[in-house]
Amino acid sequence: MHQTIRRASFGSSTLLVLLLVVPETACSAGGGAPPQPGYGDLQGGSGGSAGETVGSSGSSPATGGAANSGGAGGSTTVTKACGANKAFACMDPPMLDPIPRDAAGQWTYHQIDGATCRDGSPAGFYTRFSDTSKNLLIYLEQGGACTNVATCTFNPKSVDESITGRTMTEVTSPGVQPVRQEPQTTGIFDYTNAENPYKDWSAVWIPYCTGDAFGGSNPNGSIQGVTGGTNFVGYMNMQKFVGHIVPTFPDAARVVLTGTSAGSFGAGLNFNQVQDAFGDIPVTLIMDSGIPFADQFMSADLQKQWRTTWNFAPLIPPDCAECQHEDGGGFLNLVFYSAKKFPNVKLGVISAQEDDVMKFFFAINGTGIYPQGLADLRQEAAPYRSQFASYFIPGIKHMYSQFDDFYQPLADNVTLVSWVDDVLAGNMHDVGSPGN
To answer: Which of 73, 102, 141, 327 is the most buried (most CB within 10 A)?
Structure first.
């Protein structure tokens, strides 16, 4: 695989804004970031109003732009149209400079100034440009989570570490390896396979190195017994990444946001900011082997641990009270909040009936309970039938999109790729049984 490594340097925009949500932020207000409590020394371009042209690399403190005005001092402009329903809170990050375009068909790594991994080392993402399609695939890589000494041991803390495995046995042996994360060449990344729905698309491949399912806003995290690796800034990184990705693909016709395992959760947690940032360009969300359950299957205590350890507060829309129960639960409601906010969104979920990696992270013992969670998810999604589809697979395996069984009939004699084709076409239906 040809790879060019580039360090992104964007002048004054290297002092990136850390977007913190406040209740007054809404799509009907200015599209720029609100004042930043506790980050007054960080500066970035002023944002314009939603639906207006905004600057991306000014040097004044980040504030919402006045109506009918662009961002001050920006060197790159993009047209903003925050979300499909202006009555909901707007989660779009500040827009930054586009990534330089390379020759079509090659992966190029871009180190993004200000983006860091769990151990404080630099972070970034890969791009692959197409000359034949205006569609864009954004993929978030897998890699576990860091909530205690045991789980942090099996979680990459830098881009130069990787972990693989589709069962708990495979994950724990050999564990984290000193192998740089880079795009796969199988599954949805097999550009030689005529069945691949993304074979002609541009793509962004985002490594996972923050241990927080791409959801953290806690650069000063602390976990007992873990040293040198509690910089939980996955969501803060994603704000920077999205701020560069949207101007890089300003003429995108459609976008698919997907990921596996922790990257699947990350895709869901970041969906609102991605769709708001792309405005009227439709974003389809496909979550593979990392999907939220109702509180009786994904305990409120676990959800609370994630919220507090990683600081999920900035990614929760301030108008989604049902997403943040007092006991820590409510994550599943973020899915249905998004369905109401974006009535044309298409959401597909993929899971094995007894995914033993997710059972480990959800602390589910024995058989039958995880399938109940899957069945409950289908039932909860019933009111959103035109927006929701699921593909449930017998067995314990974890992750499918980046492997060649993506092209196999894994359930009901229906290939996973054909189900994905249906989701992309808006033909939403369920394949496979949740299990016993």
So the answer is: 141
409 forms beta bridges with 415
- Give the Cβ contact number of residue 404 at 10 Å: 12
Q: Where are the domains of the chain?
A: 107-425
Which residues are CB-contacts of 215 (< 8 A; sequence separation ≥ 6)?
A: 234, 235, 265, 266, 269, 270, 306, 310, 312, 315
The burial of 125, by beta-carbon neighbours within 10 Å (0-12 exposed, 13-18 middle, 19 or more buried), is given as: buried
Q: For residue 81, give both structure tokens.
A: 């149209």
| pLDDT 10s digits, 299-350 | 999 999 999 999 999 999 999 999 999 999 999 999 999 999 999 999 999 9
pTM: 0.84
Contact 283, 257 (CB under 8 A): yes
Instruction: State the Cα–Cα distance between residues 53 and 15, nearest whole angstrom.
Output: 21
Angle at 101 between CA 244 and CA 77, to 5 degrees: 45
Q: Residue 427: CB partners within 8 Å, gap ≥ 6?
A: none
Q: Are 170 and 164 in contact (CB under 8 A)?
A: yes
Distance between CA 280 and CA 46 in Å, rounded?
Answer: 22
Cis peptide before 174 (omega within 30 of 0): yes
Contact criterion met (CB below 8 Å) for 271 and 257: yes
The amino acid occupying position 385 is R
Between vectors from CA 355 to CA 284 and to CA 303, what angle results, nearest 5°?
A: 70
